[in-house]
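Title: Comparing notes on inverse folding

I've been comparing how different people in this forum approach sequence design from structure. To keep things fair, I'm posting one structure and asking everyone to reply with a full sequence. Here's the target:
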């Protein structure tokens, strides 16, 4: 690590320490009072005549009668409560008060105890807190108390409700296949810790503490917070998830490996991958349509093909419980260097939610106009920063809608639609002349691009889902989906590559996929002690990749700006891929402390290829054919609770991926036949152990993993597939601490190593840098400086990696370390909220890892310099 970078980290650490000490001194902790004084309800008072009272947090406490809601404040005796009953709801409004908690100034718990469906505490407006408690069959009984530490609502289900037996489904119907759309929480009996239910790892709702896998959940408030810096999901996850490589600052997730391998990206359980991997899976939906993201780190086969590194499940939004809500947001952003006019971008989005009993709907429309990007030296960054696609100078629109119908307490039908359309309407290209300059030269942007077909992404998704939570004592989920996808790349000068026909080409991948999922969860014996999840998945996909070729003389004479099209060619012939998977997964609770699970999946796939010719040999016909291949995968894991707060887990799992058949076909030599292509999928064996701790103010996790594959899959430029043994290993850690209601800090660590035996002779060498990232450290500190005003500093450190003597080969260039500091602020202002983000606050000049690995200077692009984003949102 260079000295100046070390100093920056030390300075940042010192600032956090000073800030934390000052906050600790400012924070007043009062002793808990054992006495309670009954608080009488009072009529509303004039909001302008009384000082606003701050409620610093919300806690739940189970009692022998029910549950208590505790609004933490030292001014409980000054709070005035106006309450009423409405149907099954108890609603209390507290004027002259504001709630300040970390989860977006709202607190929601589903199913805290039998007889109560939901508890919600929110800021109804700028001067009023609303407490809403929904009973299962009637409004609960409520008593009010105050103490020196808070206002207490004592809740007791009504007699009829309390005597109502539990339905077979103890949780609300799952809102997505296969995951719920909102984090569902309840309280444990022992320590009042919130239970967070996740299902991406197991395909059914399960307490995250009882899953023998490493899982990261990015909730709605965290997504909204990070979009103040960037609306690119690739960057949001790269800065938030341990195990993921550092952000690429491009429109592609190539190089954003998870534990050194590829990820399976899902939207509500629908795979976003294509058989010809375009690495654009995370550029298919706008963050405004996302409720949360669940990331399972490590190989998994529970959803089928593709998750050799893990699963990223994007869960879309669902309607709120209120009858009608609406939110509008407008934002602008710009580079702060020279405040160049063409760096300005805008974002406008509107969300509406309607809930009419058994019918609900939510919709969102987002418009984003992204300006040009500038580095810390004030130079414009090319629109295609590292040859894999960009998102500067882009225009995008996202249309999202979800309609749901609850037929009864057990049955729900839901239809989701999402359309994402993004085009890079740019006149910026990367100057090819930097490749002729000796030594390492920064990529240079030049203006005057002439290109008819703009790079970008189009994704249309339809998803129909049916849930029945009590069909013959089982939970049934059925899903049918359709997806149409196209991505178009920036032109590439391939005249130095015979395999590319010595042509300048622009490619696009076109994919159409439909499929379905059916899963059944059946209790075996003794209530919830043992469950069997079983079912089947099927999909059929048609994919092709065509290229446009361009006139090289005109390109050269224009200085790399004018692309005059010669014609279209087939690069990857149309592929018809169909796959059927059947699976079974057993979950067993052994006593109070041990959870065991294990399962098996069998997958069978068929590929049909038409006759084709390659770019290198356009006059040679290669006969198509059919391929058939299968795989059987296993998993087993255990979680043991050492204490109420600490658990350990161990797990063995297998993941697999089909070889990128399209990539192999486009480089097929004369005499090649499809039948000669080795169809055997890549199978990865993964071993993992971990430790998790969860206390009132601290959450921590540490995991170590090792995975290996006898027939790994990687490739070299310009796309030669390598099948060879691989092994990858590493450590991951995450820590979140909240020493007071107004202060939080934390961070993550990612350390990964990997090797490949290219000659299959037992001699392993390091895997390339596109697969194995350097050390990644993240850190953050948050503070609610004043009621309604919160601030956050977050840092990313990427280390160096230089392991190759021959550093001219694909992905083998040395990587230097860099440090980036961001600032995020949120201020309640008027009827809405002002949100501010400053990316690269220190205005460091650096190069993202993926850019440093590029062989050509024209793809060696710097990262963004200091960039400001300002947004204002209003809830109607």
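Reply #1:
Here's my take.
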């Amino acid at each position: 690590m260079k000295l100046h970078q070390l100093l920056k980290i030390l300075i940042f650490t010192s600032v956090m320490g000073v800030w934390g000490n000052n906050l600790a001194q400012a924070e007043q902790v009062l002793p808990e009072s054992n006495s309670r004084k009954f608080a009488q309800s009072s009529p509303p008072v004039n909001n302008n005549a009384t000082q606003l009272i701050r409620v610093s947090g919300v806690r739940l406490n189970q009692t022998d009668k029910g549950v208590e809601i505790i609004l933490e404040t030292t001014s409980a005796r000054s709070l005035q409560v106006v309450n009423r009953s409405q149907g099954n709801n108890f609603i209390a409004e507290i004027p002259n008060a504001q709630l300040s908690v970390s989860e977006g100034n709202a607190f929601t718990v589903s199913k805290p105890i039998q007889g109560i469906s939901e508890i919600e505490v929110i800021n109804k407006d700028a001067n009023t807190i609303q407490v809403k408690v929904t009973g299962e069959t009637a409004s609960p009984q409520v008593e009010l108390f105050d103490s020196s530490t808070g206002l207490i609502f004592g809740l007791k289900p009504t007699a009829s409700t309390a005597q109502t037996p539990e339905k077979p489904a103890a949780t609300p119907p799952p809102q997505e296949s296969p995951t719920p759309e909102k984090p569902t929480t309840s309280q444990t009996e022992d320590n009042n810790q919130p239970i967070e239910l996740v299902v991406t790892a197991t395909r059914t709702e399960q307490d995250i503490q009882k899953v023998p896998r490493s899982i990261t959940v990015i909730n709605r408030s965290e997504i909204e917070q990070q979009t103040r810096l960037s609306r690119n999901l690739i960057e949001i996850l790269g800065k938030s998830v341990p195990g993921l490589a550092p952000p690429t600052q491009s429109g592609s997730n190539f190089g954003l490996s998870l534990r050194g391998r590829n990820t399976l990206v899902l939207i509500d359980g629908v795979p976003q991958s294509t058989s010809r991997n375009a690495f654009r899976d995370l550029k298919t939906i706008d963050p405004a349509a996302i409720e949360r993201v669940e990331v399972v780190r490590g190989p998994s086969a529970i959803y089928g093909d593709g998750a050799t590194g893990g699963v990223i499940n994007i869960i879309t939004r669902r309607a709120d419980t209120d009858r009608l809500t609406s939110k509008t947001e407008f934002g602008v952003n710009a580079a702060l260097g020279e405040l160049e006019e063409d760096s300005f971008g805008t974002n406008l989005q509107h969300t509406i939610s309607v809930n009419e009993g058994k019918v609900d709907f939510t919709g969102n429309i987002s418009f984003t106009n992204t300006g040009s990007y500038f580095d810390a030296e004030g130079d414009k960054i090319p629109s295609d920063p590292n040859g894999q696609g960009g998102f500067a100078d882009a225009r995008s629109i996202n249309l999202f809608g979800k309609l749901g119908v609850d037929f009864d307490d057990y049955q729900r039908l839901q239809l989701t639609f999402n359309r994402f359309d993004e085009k890079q309407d740019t006149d910026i290209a990367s100057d090819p002349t930097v490749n002729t300059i000796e030594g390492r030269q920064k990529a240079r942007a030049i203006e005057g691009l002439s290109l008819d077909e703009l790079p970008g992404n189009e994704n249309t998704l339809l998803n129909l889902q049916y849930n029945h939570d009590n069909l013959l004592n089982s939970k049934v989920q059925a899903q049918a989906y359709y997806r149409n996808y196209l991505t178009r790349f920036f032109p590439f000068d391939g005249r130095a590559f015979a395999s590319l026909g010595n042509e300048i080409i622009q490619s696009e991948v076109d994919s159409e996929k439909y499929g379905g999922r059916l899963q059944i969860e059946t209790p075996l014996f003794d209530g919830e002690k043992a469950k069997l999840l079983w079912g089947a998945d099927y999909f059929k996909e048609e994919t092709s990749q065509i290229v446009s070729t361009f006139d090289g003389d005109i390109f050269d004479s224009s200085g790399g700006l004018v692309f005059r099209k010669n014609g279209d060619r087939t690069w990857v012939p149309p592929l018809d891929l169909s796959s059927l998977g059947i699976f079974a997964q057993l979950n067993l609770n052994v006593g109070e402390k041990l959870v065991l699970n294990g399962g098996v999946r069998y997958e069978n796939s068929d590929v049909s290829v038409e006759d084709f010719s390659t770019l290198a040999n356009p006059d040679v016909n290669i006969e198509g054919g059919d391929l058939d291949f299968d795989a059987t995968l296993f998993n087993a894991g255990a979680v043991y609770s050492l204490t109420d707060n600490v658990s350990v887990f161990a797990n063995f799992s297998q993941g697999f991926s089909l070889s990128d058949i399209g990539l192999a076909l486009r480089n097929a030599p004369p005499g090649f036949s499809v039948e000669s292509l080795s169809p055997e999928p890549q199978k990865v064996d993964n071993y993992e152990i971990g430790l998790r701790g969860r206390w009132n103010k601290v959450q921590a996790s540490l995991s170590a993993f090792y995975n290996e594959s006898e027939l790994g899959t990687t490739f070299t430029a310009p796309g030669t597939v390598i099948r060879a043994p691989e092994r990858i290993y590493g450590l991951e850690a995450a820590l979140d601490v909240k020493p007071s209601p107004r202060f939080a800090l934390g961070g993550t660590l990612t350390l990964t190593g990997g090797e490949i035996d290219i000659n299959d002779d037992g001699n392993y060498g390091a895997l390339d840098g596109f697969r194995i990232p350097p050390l990644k450290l993240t850190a953050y500190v948050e503070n609610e400086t004043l009621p309604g005003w919160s601030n956050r500093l977050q840092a990313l450190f990427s280390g160096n990696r230089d392991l190759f003597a021959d550093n001219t080969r694909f992905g083998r260039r040395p990587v230097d370390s860099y440090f980036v500091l961001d600032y995020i602020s949120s201020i309640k202002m008027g009827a809405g909220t002002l949100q501010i983000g400053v990316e690269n606050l220190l205005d460091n000049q650096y190069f993202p890892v993926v850019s440093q690995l590029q062989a050509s200077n024209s793809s060696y692009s710097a990262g963004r310099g200091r960039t400001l984003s300002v947004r204002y949102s209003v809830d109607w």
